[in-house]
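Quarterly update from the structural biology core.
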Amino acid sequence: MQLDVSKISLSPSGIALDYTATEKGTIDNSQIGASFIEFRITDQNGKEITSHSGGGEGHFDNGVWNFSSTKSFDPISVDVQKLTITPYLMLPSGGGGVQIDKDGAETKIPFNKSLLKEVKFQPFTVEVPKQNK
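Predicted structure, tokenized:
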């Protein structure tokens, strides 16, 4: 799995973190770890910045799943100087689905947690530009 955080935006309304992730797979494998990427952000004092949802999309191309998303977080105070960002996988413990063919016949897709692999990412730190009070 490959993860690329391409942009971190800071504004009075919060933090936006843009990323892309790729993972080899097959078109019929809906249990791709890259689709479960989340981020934990803490300031230099260890205070966690609350995460909110974000939209995303994924597509399959030439044996590779490609995902992109923007995750949003609470605003930070003016005294924050550094942010430590830790990517992680929030793997589900259950699930499944239904596949419908062209004739409308339904086939249950069971959830198989053993197909998901835990991945450890390295945290990284970013300096926060000086903010005006």
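Residues 19 and 111 are 26 Å apart (CA to CA).
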